[in-house]
Design goal:
The protein is an alpha/beta fold and 204 residues long. Helices cover 22% and strands 35% of the residues.
């Protein structure tokens, strides 16, 4: 999992982004940057671990309809900061960026059981209650993270495929009726065209 981000690193992110985009940090330490494209599109939330920010920002498309909101996650990949990002950004669709080369429209579900010191990842229908952990954000805000992540599935796009346990927080976007996809940094250049083209065909 990504390391927890210290508060001074969040301030550094804001200072670095300020000359290029409107930016702010929310109550959980997630940093947001707003990039305006041409008219004719909605808002796409691109959600990523803070450590991937340099590579992600270099790979943003130069021409696109609507707005891209880049959200940098300061947590260990938790669901609650992602849910708050959906509130803040109010996106039409979501792309979750991660390490690797794949492009995904679906991911399998899982849960963690056992002692927090030695958790085990098992299918959702396996015996045992999922762990519920108390997290502390870099800002000092505490929240509960239920380590159970249902499977999710969006309409496929050119080049996308199902993944095994990919982007576990994505089910929260699907529950809101949003299309959501996941892609590795190395795949981003080939993802933008099918992504924006697919979003132009409507929700679902």
């Amino acid at each position: 999992m990504p390391p927890r981000v210290p508060l001074d690193a969040i301030h550094a992110d804001l200072e670095a982004l300020a000359p290029y985009a409107r930016s702010f940090a929310d109550e959980l330490g997630s940093v947001y940057a707003y990039f305006e494209g041409r008219h004719g599109g909605g808002t796409l939330l691109v959600w990523a671990p803070r450590a991937l920010a340099p590579g992600l920002l270099r790979r943003l498309p130069r021409d696109y309809p609507g707005r891209i909101v880049v959200g940098l996650d300061a947590s260990e990949g938790d669901a609650w900061p992602f849910a708050r990002a959906l509130d803040w950004a109010s996106p039409r669709a979501v792309l979750i960026a991660q390490e690797g080369e794949g492009f995904y429209h679906a991911g399998g579900g899982w849960k963690e059981v056992g002692p927090p010191e030695q958790p085990r990842r098992v299918p959702l229908d396996a015996p045992g209650e999922p762990l519920e952990l108390v997290r502390t954000a870099p800002t000092g805000v505490r929240y509960r993270e239920l380590r159970a992540y249902p499977a999710w599935n969006s309409p496929s796009l050119d080049g996308s495929r199902p993944g095994d346990g990919v982007a576990p927080q994505a089910h929260l976007a699907r529950a809101r009726g949003l299309r959501v996809y996941a892609a590795g940094l190395e795949a981003l250049e080939r993802v933008w065209a099918p992504l924006f083209g697919g979003l132009g065909r409507g929700a679902g």
